[in-house]
Amino acid sequence: MKQRMTLITLLLPALLMAQQIEIVNGPYLQNMSENETTIVWTTNSDAVSWVELAPEGEDSFYAKERERFYESSHGNKAIGRLHRVTIGNLEPGTTYRYRIFSKEVLSYEGHRIMYGNIASTNVYNKQPLTFTTFDRNRERIAFKVVNDIHGKNDNLSSMLGGDIKKNSDLVIFNGDMISMLNDERQIFTGFMDRATELFASEVPVFLARGNHESRGKASSQLIDYFPTNNGQFYYAFRHGPVHFMILDGGEDKPDSDIEYSGLSLFDDYRSEVKRWIEKQAADPDFLSAPFRVVVMHIPPTGSTWHGTLDLADKYLPALNGARIDIMLCGHTHNYLYTPGGEVPGISFPVLINDDETWLDIETTQEKMTIDIMDLSGKRVTSHTIDRR
Ligand SMILES: [Fe+2]
User: Domains of the chain by range and CATH?
Assistant: First the structure.
């Protein structure tokens, strides 16, 4: 018995080390708006999580107790490995400092919880992470758009390796960032770990789902990692002079195709998106914005496949009447720009971005400039759109 006790005593530090909680992925910013954002991260064990918030300033994060925001579910603090803390009541156009915390839950029986260690981001010998809320009154905004990298992290680094925090207010991933979603970890190995390393802890990222992200056993969990303001992959937000409408075109082949194993219901889904677009297009907030940008992975032209035909049939009538300034697409892995009115049935310009170029976009109250950049950072071509 004594020998056994000694063994346990000897092994205890190792056991405790093995249980050390760690932040595995993130944090990254989601669902940014003028008064709210959601901060997402994962840990290697179950935990209760929170964010501490401080105003922008030169004082130490430790100067005083900071306001805490917990992840909660219907009145209870949430316990899990995926953490999503929404912070509300923020001021528009304001910079905040933040720190994330996860307190490990070692056991949970009835009302008895045994807590372990706490993992957090570093504010001791590093500057705290920051974010800036959106503001519709901002004179000018800048954003980047990347699509179809299919898990090629090095391309992501080439595209977004600059000082994104200084030169971009937000980043849009326009679909097919990975080829298949069999396991939720692929979200991180495929692109989000690199995105976090490059910018996503401090610059918000918005996902427009591609057809490849709707494939695989873990695809139904994707929305958990990319929370939006309406819980859907089609949603809208505003920053500065731009009203963004993010759309989802679903899969590209008919629902009955053998590749989908009888699981696809994208015809019904596109009808649901159509109804939402019709409501959006009549929204005075949307119509009064200086610029209206639609982001959708699959373009509504250039293919005779069912997905393209169905979304063109369902989405275009409402979009054609909505004074869209430009639609940004991907999917084909080939650059194509068509001015409004050139393609029968499409009244607005459509820009299809290649898989090895990215869009560097600046918009003032009067003009939008879209630079198409290659992997070496060279500008390939450019388009300007004047306010109507
Ligand atoms: Fe695609």
Answer: 21-132 (2.60.40.10), 140-386 (3.60.21.10)
Residue type, 303: S
The pLDDT of residue 24 = 98
Name the pLDDT band for 125 (thresholds 50, 70, 90).
confident
Å from CA of 198 to ligand 1 middle: 24
Residue 295 pairs with which residues in a beta bridge? 246, 328
Neighbours of ion ligand 1 (CB under 5 A): 176, 210-211, 331
Task: Look at the alpha carbons of 249, 252, 253, 258 in this order and tell me if their dihedral is positive or negative.
Answer: negative
Which amino acid would we find at residue 105? V
Contacts 24+ apart (CB under 8 A), 163-169: 164/198, 164/199, 164/203, 165/199, 165/202, 165/203, 167/142, 168/142, 168/143, 168/144, 168/199, 168/203, 169/132, 169/134, 169/141, 169/142, 169/143, 169/203, 169/239, 169/240
pLDDT of res. 259: 86
For residue 199, report the distance from its CA to the centre of ligand 1, in Å.
24
Structure token digits, residue 5: 């006790």
Q: Is the pTM of this model over 0.85?
A: yes
Q: Which two tokens stand for residue 323?
A: 């004074």
